[in-house]
Amino acid sequence: MNHDEAKNILLLYRHGTADADDPQIAGALALAQRDPELARWLEEHCARQFVLREKFRQIAAPAGLREQIISEHAAQKKMVFWRQKITLATVPALMLLTTLILFWFLRHGHDDTLAIYQNRMAGVALRGYAMDLTTDNPEQIHAYLAQNHAPADFVLPAALKQIALAGCAVESWQGARVSMICFRTGRPLAPGGQGDLWLFVVDRASVRGSPAGSSPQFSKVNRLITATWTQGDKLYLLGTEGDEQTIKQYL
Prior knowledge:
Blueprint: H1 3-10, H2 23-34, H3 36-57, H4 65-78, H5 80-108, H6 113-127, E1 133-134, H7 138-147, E2 164-173, E3 176-184, E4 197-203, E5 217-221, E6 224-231, E7 234-241, H8 244-248
Antiparallel strand pairs: 1-2, 2-3, 3-4, 4-7, 5-6, 6-7
Helix pairs in contact: 1-2, 2-3, 3-6, 4-5
């Protein structure tokens, strides 16, 4: 199996399902673990799927739809004629609904770039990572990031400056470099964990749909609660496990 064949197979892969048990998909996933470019593509593909699933979950069911389904189901048991009629009426409606959703997603997909970025960075924090530099010295962290052409002129919130540093790493996002600064809050770390609070900083222009102001926007991404805000030409994403009150104490 080569790179392109694996990518075609993984187009059908749905993260968090039994798809990984399929021999072909399992083989493609194994290849992705050895192929950094394929691994990055797969992570972005799964992030897009996550955003699309969230959009479907946000669609409100039409008023009375549940009652209509129950009523139609009862009618199906009584008369084949009604079953056929209901099927003929439902299929075009579902096709229309799907078309409208896809049309909306394609027209407004650029607004979802932020959600994909958030999901990607949360994945970096949660899946395990190797810090490029392990230190609690902020000057060393700024110097390392600057030397590696990652955002180094970021400004930490006053409360976050009081949290112990653990180190940093340089990640990538669609050709842009992302600074990841790791902190230790004093809570017990997960096995093998190096930090439990993560700040990601990237040039604001590289993420479409970035917040317009400096007031943090809170959202749940995977197991993390995140706060996202912009300051100057930088986009900040802070994440940790917990709820909104947990992360607010670091802002």
